[in-house]
Each structure stands twice: as C-alpha cells, then as structure tokens.
Amino acid sequence: MPPKIQGKGRTVAEPNFAQNTLHAFTDKENRSVVTAIGMFAIGVAFLHSSWAEILLPA
C-alpha cells in the first residue's frame, strides 16, 4: 500500500537567482562587504565626476 500524502502535495519551489542575490545583499552577515563595495563605488563615481576638481589645489 502506498504511503499517505498529507496536504495538497505541493512542493516548495527553490528560490531563483534574483531572490538568492537579493537575500545575499540583505543578509546581516554580508552587510560590511556590501557597505564597503558601495562606498568604493561612490568614491570612484565622485573621482570620475567634475566634482573631483574640488580636490585640486588652487
């Protein structure tokens, strides 16, 4: 006799790539790495922009 299936028998789908990526970015364990990469990106964007002229001596 086959085993009885309880519930509707639905299987839980595995999270896709986008959900895994979002979970990795928002995970507390990765917060320092994400913050460091974000600050680096902001610094590069600032140095590449015209605002970087503020740093030049007069």
Overall description:
This is TOM core complex subunit Tom6. InterPro entries: Tom6. The protein is mainly alpha-helical and 58 residues long. It has a domain at 30-57. Helices cover 48% and strands 0% of the residues. It has two helices and no strands. The protein has helices spanning 17-26, 31-48. The longest helix is centred in the last third of the chain and has 18 residues, at 31-48. The protein is rod-shaped, with a radius of gyration of 24 Å.
Task: Count the E strands.
Answer: 0
Radius of gyration of CA atoms, rounded to a whole number:
24 Å
Written as H for each helix and E for each strand, in order along the chain, the element string is HH
Work out the strand percent.
under 5%
Characterize the overall form.
rod-shaped
Q: What is the CA–CA distance across the termini?
A: 88 Å
Mean pLDDT: 87
The total count of helices amounts to 2
Unreliable residue stretches:
none
Structural class: mainly alpha
How is this fold's topology laid out?
Blueprint: H1 17-26, H2 31-48
Quick overview of this protein structure:
With 58 residues, the protein is an all-alpha fold. It is built from two helices and no strands. The mean pLDDT is 87.
Which descriptors would you attach to this protein?
about 60 residues; mainly alpha; 2 helices; about 0% strand; rod-shaped
